Input
Amino acid sequence: MMALVVLLVLSSLTAHAGKNCKRSLLVPDHVKTQFAGNMGVLSLGLGYSFFNGKLESDMFYGYVGTGQSDHSIQHLTQKNTFYPYSLPVNDVLVWKPVSFGLSFLYKVGDTNRETWLFLPERYPNSYYFATAFHALVTVGTSMTYKGPGILRNTGMYLEAGTTALYIRNWLSEDFVKLSDIVSLGIGIKKMFN
Amino acid sequence: MILCAILLSGSGCNVFEFSPYETDIEGSYKKLNETNIARLLTVETASSDSFTFAFLTDSHADYDDFLDAVTLINGRNDILFVLHGGDITDFGLQEEYKLAAEIITRSQKPFITAIGNHDCLSNGRQTFRTMFGDSFFSFEFPAFGKENSYKFVFLNDNTLEHDMNDNDNLKIAAWVEEAISSSHSHEAVFVVAHVPPDNTHYFNNETEEYYRTMLSENNVLMSLNGHEHKYYFGEYYDDGVLYLSGEDIGDRQFVTITVHNGEHASVTVNRVYY
Output
């Protein structure tokens, strides 16, 4: 339900931005929808593009329903993706063969389930590291359509990722295999101009 | 495309992960403690003099050390079963639980696990319930063909993580008392709980005294604990109850406990370094 509301707000924003020729610096450059990738079953994000598209910085809201977990989970994720190379495939397609991402995942609410950003008072000082926060690391690839029509400036991306915690475990333990910790995320990006 | 992805993820190969905090467990890791207790009850004590089990604890993310211990124990014919004192994860996450469960299921001996304070984090209590079962449970191990069996009581005494008030503490105490009150009809009782009762973050003077008294008045031979990552073995309160705290598996050691058949139950503790 929350996801639907966010989607509606985002789509109205998109339509609005399309009508304005001069966009404020504060208006986001793109909207993204992502499936999986540790940020929710589905997540929706708004973001900015920097350095001629080499860096994208987004804020996502993601949701996991009770079908996938015993309780619903809400995530806010600040995602940063670096695209070092951009290769035109033909007149209408641009391929960014590799991307590197670093995201900060936050689990909203539910402190009674022992997920908190700041240690509750009942614990001794520095007893635990924050449990509602995880750093996510991704490697991916993306393709953007630059041709005419309504799909102009629409892109798709595919990423393989995991959490920093699992990378630590993978590096220190032979028992932990990459296949244990890496999973995929797929997303669509629509640029506003 | 998304439909395809959902179908793929349903195949159980974890191509897609939705959140590190997911708690649904697919696959074979369900109620591990129950199935292992059922296995244990079919184990026969070869000797009429004694039986031996292993106690290890606090494996956290030390998967290699944990697996080495399980492999070593698999090769030891004298060890009948294994007890884990809790903290099989660092953050209580499903992925960590799965890795630990994978090692536990490689144990050829029945393997029974207590819940640790770290296992309660990130909604890990729910994952423990799905994967291992209730965090309060007990079972009876019949040995030497005696009429009375040896009773093992597992407790969840991670009171800080449960944000318990005095009333909750009393509820736990009532359960424990019920679980061990019939213990006079047992040869001996072993209590396995992650946090030892002298830990001041988890017990105050009153609850420590209550816990200690309850153990000493109910034929408890031995209390097996973890949490401190520090070895201790002795009659801590001079009240007849033996307290054992295990080193963490990351220090590549565990203990074996041999229970001797006799008019009064007695134990020998051996430290195993590997």
Remarks:
- DSSP finds three helices and nine strands in chain A.
- The two ends of chain A are 29 Å apart (CA to CA).
- Chain A touches chain B through 47 residues (CB under 8 Å).
